[in-house]
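Could you help me review a protein record that somebody else here produced? This is what I was given.
***
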Amino acid sequence: MLALASLSGAADADWARAGAPYADLALLGGVALDADSRGAARELVARGREEFLPDDPLAFVDTQLATLDDAPIRAGVNVRSTTVDPIREAATTCADHGAILEINAHCRQEELCAVGCGETLLRDTERLTASVAAAAAAGATVSVKVRAEVDGVDLPATARTLTDAGADAIHVDAMDSEPRIADVAAAAPDAFVLANNGVRDRTTTWEYLAHGADGVSVGRPSDDPAVLERVARAVTDWERRGRREAGRDGGVLG
């Protein structure tokens, strides 16, 4: 699988449609849902970052997903919230559209961490698992975007806990620590592991897949067709190689 990773203030429905010829999944957002996360997003905008700050974030999620209901790509939305209820509501909307709800436990901007969003959640598994459980109970397919190499965080153990709480996918920003993908995949064998960071070509794609990732995601160059074409071809070639090897080994064809 090739996914397009969320880009604050840029990853919208038009962006997803542009990447549809190459990718299987587009994760829109991130979208700040509650008062504290929206306040932090406004501070980010004040210092020059792009952020989605619609008047009604839940209505924005619904409208964006509706625009993609007939698109040849599955949609998802990466969301930030310090409280559970908005995540539950967003998950219900995602379920209605057959979309993925991705909980952001990844962003490291000081403004977001100060209010308890982003990677702060990796150090507060009680709050994070409550959000995962609420989203799963609402009927959504749930992904959690996480970051490797966060001080004090045992990422494989956290991945296992999140899967037990109802997460279907763990989206890992490997932070130049590619072998961590293998650790997460081993710790959470029932989760779909999506690897992110520096995915640009066959070499980077195959490295993550060799470590046990089920798919890769492209972030900053997700609006560059040349990069997406290279990565899509690499994913396809890897999958074909796997099918051939399975056939020789008597696997799925045996």
Remarks:
- The first helix runs from residue 13 to 19.
